[in-house]
UniProtKB/TrEMBL annotation:
Span of the signal peptide: none
Residues annotated as transmembrane: none
Keyword Isomerase found: yes
GO MF, one annotated term: isomerase activity
Protein name per the record: Maleylpyruvate isomerase N-terminal domain-containing protein
Keywords recorded for this protein, A-Z: Isomerase
Region described as Disordered: spans on this chain: 80-101
Record InterPro entries: DinB/YfiT-like, MDMPI_metal-binding
Keyword Isomerase: yes
Mycothiol-dependent maleylpyruvate isomerase metal-binding domain residues: 6-117
């Protein structure tokens, strides 16, 4: 849990420091800064929904619209908090629906860490 909290806090710190004119700039993975931040927010919210027992397809549908709104920093903070709360409430062995099979919550947590701190081609903020 400590790692997901630290990674989320670092991601939020980076987002807070973004210059106003940087949101449309490309990242090394060739998506815009805004798209990368939204990818992380969607991942955080998707994870919280899955850990709460919502199915993958229903969770996808619930997150189909813009997830950043007018305050991307608030979206990052709120989604990070909900994800952390969901992981804290889930037993490590709780099955989480993965793309091909269920995985334990503790393995899904490691996947989320890679998304938060991995190299830009993997979704991280570097």
């Amino acid at each position: 849990m400590e790692l997901i909290l630290a990674a989320s806090a670092e991601f939020e710190r980076v987002v807070r420091q973004l210059p106003v004119d940087s949101w449309d700039l490309p990242t090394p993975s060739q998506i815009s800064v805004r798209d990368l931040v939204e990818h992380v927010v969607v991942g955080n919210r998707f994870t919280a929904l899955l850990l709460a027992g919502v199915g993958r397809e229903q969770a996808r549908n619930m997150l189909a619209d813009d997830q950043l709104g007018d305050d991307p920093v608030a979206a990052v903070a709120e989604s990070s908090r909900h994800q952390a709360e969901a992981f804290a409430a889930a037993p490590p062995e709780q099955p989480v629906p993965g793309p091909n099979c269920d995985v334990p919550a503790e393995a899904f947590l490691r996947f989320r860490l890679v998304d938060l701190v991995g190299p830009p081609s993997c979704g991280g903020p570097r």
